[in-house]
Amino acid sequence: MKAMKKWMALGLAAVTCAASLAMGVSAEETSWPESAVSIIVPASAGGGTDLLARTFADKLTERLGQNFVVVNVTGAGGSSGISQVHDAQPDGNTILFFHNAMLINKVTGVSTYSYDEMMAGPHVVTDNATGFYVSADAPYQTYPELVDYCKEHPGEVTMGVETGGFTYLMVKSFEAATGVEFKMVDVGGNADKCTALLGGHIDIMPNQYSTAKGYIESGDFTALGFPSEERSEVYPDVPTAKEQGVDWMYSGYEFGFWFPAETDQAIVDKLDATVKELFDNNEVQEDILTLGNEGNYIAPADYTALFEQIEGDYTTLWEEANK
Length: 323
Prior knowledge:
CATH architecture of the largest domain: 3-Layer(aba) Sandwich
Largest sheet: 6 strands, mixed
Strand order of the largest sheet: 2-1-3-10-4-11
Strand content: 15-25%
Number of domains: 2
Number of helices: 11
Helix content: 25-40%
Order of helices and strands: HEHEHEHEEHEHEHEHEEHHEH
Low-confidence stretches: 1-27
Radius of gyration: 19 Å
Distance between the termini: 17 Å
Oligomer: single chain
Mean pLDDT: 88
């Protein structure tokens, strides 16, 4: 799992727009968009993925003169929304905003295809601030306490997940690393997990800190910590699992845009050039930070390379967890 740390060393020094344009038609040679563009988000409204997508939708609407409209399509660990874009006409009017859960869907068998049957757009956000959250009155408020409790009560602690989704494999990796076993309960996306934990329908949830932040500040939830090598730059007060003595590492979310296969390269290039411009002019970084995430532009070619490596690590993890 330590190999996950090297993902961001894949040449994520963003390839310039000029380099990507040299591969094909210039972004200026397309009149796209000529009508409203649907940004499909395979997550519930109000969650971290949704809020990030809306931030970019607003900026792209301003820049490109057509409405970019977020459409939430939930179900099957994100596969329902991914399928809608995969099967859409390759005219640039239906695009995907999602993260590496689309890799997990294939690895776990929820979907038969992944990013390799789509065209990458720009990567825009890295979120390493994802961990486990419990009610403030739970009998375990740290990872060591959680491990001890689970070993004393095997299979009794209910974990809220979205079966086959990003957090499902995250929980499987924790089980493999610590030898504990949870009772998995499918409660839906990240916003739904918060509702389920607040209502006492589950005992614990994996989630983005940005999604759980309001409940932490109100005193309802406790963040156990992040499964990363180092503390988050955005949330430096939250400890890692490793520094608590639990040797557990897991990747964060890598957000970006994806297009149906066979989309005109000029359309992909135009979105890429526009997004890169937003970053170059510091027009989105503050909004992203406000949502609790780190802005991180990566050109489409490097985004694809990043996913190739992550998919290999996920496949290894899934095989080890199911021996």
